[in-house]
Amino acid sequence: MNDRYDVVIAGAGPAGAQCARDLAARGYDVVVLETEAEDEFPRQSNKSTAGTFHSMMAAFGIPDDVVMQYTDSVVLESPTEHYVRDQTGAVLEFADFKRYLVRDSRDDGAEYRFDARVTAPIMENGEIVGVTYNGDEAVYGDIVIDATGPSAPLAKKLGIVDLKRENHAIGIEYEFEGIDIDRPGFADLRDAMMLRLDHEIAPGGYSWIFHTGDDTAKVGLCYIQNGSHDQYSRDDFTIDDYLSHWLETDPRFRNAEPIEGKQHRGSAHIQEPGQLHTDRFMAIGDTVPSLDPLWGEGINKCMQSGRAAAATADSCLKHDGVEPTAENLAVYETLWHRDVAPNAKSRLLMTQLLYLAPNDRYDDLMRDLQRLDDDTLAKANKGNTRAIAKLLEPGDAPLLVDLAKQRLDLDLGSFF
């Protein structure tokens, strides 16, 4: 078995597999190390709601046969109001999608080693030159990429990322049948992806219903266990309790039954990105936090970061004598901030404002969105500060004060 490659990638999720896909298509020797066993992949890492938009499908050549349901709209719900935006999308069968990425990159020559848990970087002269996995096995590469998500064993040990506990979001999702998709008094969720802002269901977060065909849908919620969550949460409730509460109180679920084997749990971090790379190393996907305030788009962000890392690796490896130093890999940082998460700070600000607002403000937001043009919402989601300002009201001053205090507390906490 070969132990030297152009690029070593830890993690076979959307980011790692897409990076391998692009590199293998360019003719590089690339190996991907994945913790899970191949015959079960991705049993443990089948964690995404897998909602995406046609732009991602087209940009990355994703086939129709991994799609559970194409959708025509996105719905935002508050406790008593809702807003519908015409926007085509797709709900993927996430396991099939991940297996497709592996299969497609293998067809171009990428090697995968399953049952391979990456444990630590191998260092020479202060630079990473490879990784150990499964304790004492080793593999070496000119460039090493961490695509393991929040576990980030390489990025953490290299001091590249600092994923803070107070920014850690947890989520749970079930797939159900028997859902009343077009319930009177609620938005029509036929061929739609719905996101709900309601602290009774997801304190300091959001919940969702993604239609997957007929009377079936993905139903879940997530929240960050920080100040926003503490302000609205119940002391005696776990995330499972909140999901049960929603199922028991929402009439759309009166006849719903969980589909066997279709339960998913996941986590991510919602915070400003820090360093993304160093000598011979890049961090991609959920190892580096990124999201859109409203739509999330985690899959697209992961795929984009994998592509940016592959292009960066290519820019070094294709030239003889060009070493993948931190300086030469800096193009990854440029591409990440340009293509993956532009306006990262202002988008994070909008995300925090959303999760901190009270329920009655969510109702006002839905009414505001109904009178504003769709461009305002799209621009706000991309971090345009003028568009975000249009969504604010004079009565939001206390909310902005609370946000400033929360951000100050986080900054001071990290300082001390």
From TrEMBL:
It comes from the Archaea. InterPro entries: Dggglyphlred_Halo, FAD-bd, FAD/NAD-bd_sf, Geranylgeranyl_reductase. SUPFAM superfamilies: FAD/NAD(P)-binding domain (SSF51905). Coiled coil: none annotated. Residues 5-306 form the FAD-binding domain. It holds the Pfam family FAD_binding_3. One of its GO terms (molecular function) is FAD binding. NCBIfam families: Dggglyphlred_Halo (NF041385). This is FAD dependent oxidoreductase. It comes from Natrinema altunense (strain JCM 12890 / CGMCC 1.3731 / AJ2).
